[in-house]
Sequence to fold (639 residues):
Amino acid sequence: MPKLVERDLRLDLFRGLALWLIFLDHIPSNIVSWITIRNYGFSDATEIFVFISGYTAAYVYGRAMREHGTVVASARVLKRAWQIYVAHIFLFAIYMAEIAYVSRSFENPLYGEEMGIFDFLQQPDITLVQALLLKFKPANMDVLPLYIVLLAGFPPMLWLLLRKPGIALGTSVLLYMLTWYFGWNLPAYPNGFWVFNPFAWQLLFVFGAWCALGGAKQIEFLITSRITLGLALVYLVFAFVIALTWSVPGLDGVVPRFLEDWMYPIDKTNLDVLRFAHFVALAVVTIRLVPRTWSGLQSIWLRPAILCGQHSLEIFCLGVFLSFAAHFALVELSDSIGMQIATSLLGIILMVATAAMISWYKRIEGRSPGSRPGPPGATLAGGGA
Amino acid sequence: MKALALALMCALTGGVLAGSAAVAKESDACIAAAGVGAPDFALPHVAEAIAKKKLDVAVLGSASSELNGPAGTSIAYPTRLEAALSALLPGVTVKISTYAKARDTAADMESKLGRIVSEAKPDLVVWQTGTADAIRGVDPDEFRISLDDGVDTLQAANSDVVFMNMQYSPRTEAMLAVGAYADAMRIVALQREAVLFDRFSIMKRWNESGVFDLYGATRTTDVAQRVHDCLGRLLAQVVVEGAKLTMPAKKATR
Fold:
């Protein structure tokens, strides 16, 4: 069996940062979201979140599978999937409360068409059942269902990863390719398909898991080579230039026609290979810039992001709720730039404070790192998969 | 041909001058704040129609192409577009036919296009879409293919197309994800060299600059009427500018 590598703090750091970015991106018309990476390349915080989730899931449940067997570890993975399902339904209830309020209080003949999104309130019998089946998913509530499906299908993949990591990764790539070829996806209600296609996005999750279980060591020579770094930088600059043409007016004609025809649409639903490559390029550069032993990881300044990354499920859910709340505040109170910055900052502060409080709860409940046997690295994995 | 081009130039110059004078007179903040530049692509069939003094336009859309109420049709943007085009193009007979149906998706509209082009023989189709598809959660890929097929039909029927994307609606912004559909419209417009009338960005700029209050809850059509009027005039500007873009190309080929 491949040897488990020690968990490193960079995972928590970047997952924490990804959670902040997802929160900022989910507040519509927020000036602060201009700092998020989706504006400067093909991939966005979702890729970071899914990759690191796969990495930590393999790290935590991989050890469980080796120490306690396949059945126990699989049961734990499924328990986690169930927790996420409950969290998703909780968020859905909050969403319904907000949307029901807006549908009762807002009226404007200009927006007769947009009011159509409230039509589903007329038939709660269908809507609620479809929501419980994860087929009806309101805007910005697509990541958790993806996570649920990925975890639910993870036990056999983990079993294979621990025995034949190469074959496991190959299976994942094959599924990704077949998905593109045959157009597989899960159905959504009332129409269409899942916004994040689990059959495509599993590639990133399994790739993360494969890296955690020794794959990263195997390709270390590739990751650290200067040629790879050079290629990654060139690709990042290319993606940056393309992304600029989306936001800077007047740059429309810069991209040559053949490139447009070949490149667009850059499909987020099916994890376009351009997005995947962009994430990998970002990772290669990041690993170079932030080595595992970097002293800054211990600094108090990065502590808030690391804390959030260590309690990702809770903080993710809180972030989705806070982005609803922030939009609500911007609509009801004021949408000035000052207010946008203030709500963004306040949201992140609340996320950090909540993460600190969860850590504190875990400590007083005796689930602190020190009270559990295992290597010191394990402490950071607590509940963080 | 030369005479035709000359007549066209005169008509356009005259029209644009008259139009800009009218705008200047009203000193409209909404036009200035909209930030609409020259269109990215030309509208050759519109240019030909203007030269022939008869411009037929079809507006294809969903609920946001009409307004409810007794005065609905007369204040909605298609009617305002007709008035603005007539003012910008003196001597040209402008006729607008509106095909707007609530909840129609791009696929629904695409299936009607064949009938519309054979019935109305428009020189230009303004195709407003996106919101109904976003509400229904239509696969963005299917949405894009419907647009693409629609452009095929229109090109075969010698009609230009101007895409109009969704309204900016701050109240429902967090509940309705329109991004994928807006992107699809932008991509099809770019690939098929069609003009995109970016209603979303225009209304967003109006909201940011405070020209119109798009947050306010109201039962009256006051704001809606002014928004549609300004949209109609901006659209007329884009159509005329798009026709003008055709001329250098025509000269070059002769």
In short: Chain A has a mean pLDDT of 90.
